[in-house]
Amino acid sequence: MRHESRPHRRRSRLTRRGRLALFLGLLLTLGAVVLIPVLRGAQEPEVPSRLTIPEGWRASQVYAAVDRALKLPPGTAKSAVPSAALALPAEAEGNPEGYLFPATYPVTSKTTPAALLARMVRTANEKLATTAVADGGKAHGMTPYQTATMASVIEAEAESPADMGKVARVVHNRLAKSMPLQMDSTLNYALNRSTLDTTLSDTRIDHPFNTYERQGLPPTPIDSPGLAAMAAAVAPTPGDWLFFVTVKPGDTRFSATYAEHRKHVAEFNRYRARAGSRAG
Q: How far is residue 256's CA from residue 174's CA, in Å, rounded to a whole number?
């Protein structure tokens, strides 16, 4: 029987280093298979939108803006106030008017009305606690709530930040002389309006915010004052003024006597009449 020689087949064997490289390669491949669906399902971080509350807005305006920003039915933000655990002083009796600080706030899909309002109140407390405002208020014997209330009137009455110190001085001078403040802004708040036209009958309404008939500050703030108004409330410009009127944009006249004030009011009326005739 003839035996034929068969070719010898060499088997290639992986070295230890080769086996390790293969194992790592398999792990990386499996990791990629698992990771790709995860990456596909991952969402980009939400970019917050911004809600800006201007100086001088009333709480009702802030509530409406919060509802719009959070895409909620009207009245939702206001209804959240009782359960929002707002850090308000006892004097506020749960009413956040004057403490919804005007600023720009980030808003996401997870933001709630209660959380947003609470942040506004915390910001107001921080501003009232700044050294200049807090120390100035104490020097005048004012609580933070009284500072916020006076600042809200200054915010509503001053035509510009430059006039705030003088308006604050008028308020302080009138309080010192036990004179009614006679501020149209408080009447507008009482009547839920905003106007330059105040009638004699308006000044006679029986209302806690009628500062023509009642002495002292209004019972609560009438809007959301900014830091400049707070600072003016506790550091008024020196002067003996008791009256002021904005005759025309950029021209507010301050006076110490009623006779001088009447002249300024007459000029205001003439300006309004001319502006009305041009508009007509």
A: 11
Paired tokens of 143: 């609580």
Write out the H or E segment, with its range, that includes residue 51.
Answer: strand 49-52
pLDDT of residue 220: 98
Q: What is the DSSP string of 72-91?
A: --TTHHHHHGGGS-----GG
Q: Indicate yes or no: pTM above 0.85.
A: no
Q: pLDDT tens digits, residue range 233-274? A: 999 999 999 999 999 999 999 999 999 999 999 999 898 888
DSSP tag of 249: T
Single-letter code of the amino acid located at 32: A
Hunting for tokens 């403490």 — which residue is that? 99
DSSP 208-241: TT-TTTS-SS-SS-SS---HHHHHHHHSPPP---
Summarize pLDDT for 11-25 with one digit per residue, the tens. 555 555 555 555 555
**Which residue, 247, 239, 244, is CA-closest to 261?**
244
Q: How far is the C-alpha of 153 from the C-alpha of 220, rounded, in Å?
A: 10
Q: What is the DSSP letter of 202?
A: G
Minimal CA–CA distance to 104: which of 58, 61, 50? 50
CB 224 within 8 A of CB 152: yes
Distance CA 129, CA 13 (A): 78
> Which one, of 101, 106, 122, lies nearest residue 227 by Cα?
101
